[in-house]
Design goal:
The protein is mostly helical and 108 residues long. It has one domain. It has 4 helices and no strands. 21% of the residues are buried.
Amino acid sequence: MEKQYKTLEEFYPYYLQEHQNATCRILHFVGTALLFVILIASFISGNYIWLVSIPFVGYGFAWVGHFFFEKNKPATFKYPFFSLASDFKLFFDLLIGKEKFRAKAKIN
């Protein structure tokens, strides 16, 4: 039986395990960074129609990373809120160097 996650703290290690491929992590990072650029640009310009592109940019980059590089199913389908929060957590962890783009090898 598959584990059911109740908190973000329980979920995040699983999320990291599903994001071991460096290209997948880079694509997640780029998609999230572009999301912030679009968000800021839309508010500065007053052109709020750009906000419509945020889900396509954010999920588009992430899903390419999963389907073509990580070769797994995005956690978004089962845990949408934990997955979204973890996307932002990973982005900032990568930004400050707490996580690396090349994940540590799994120990079995």
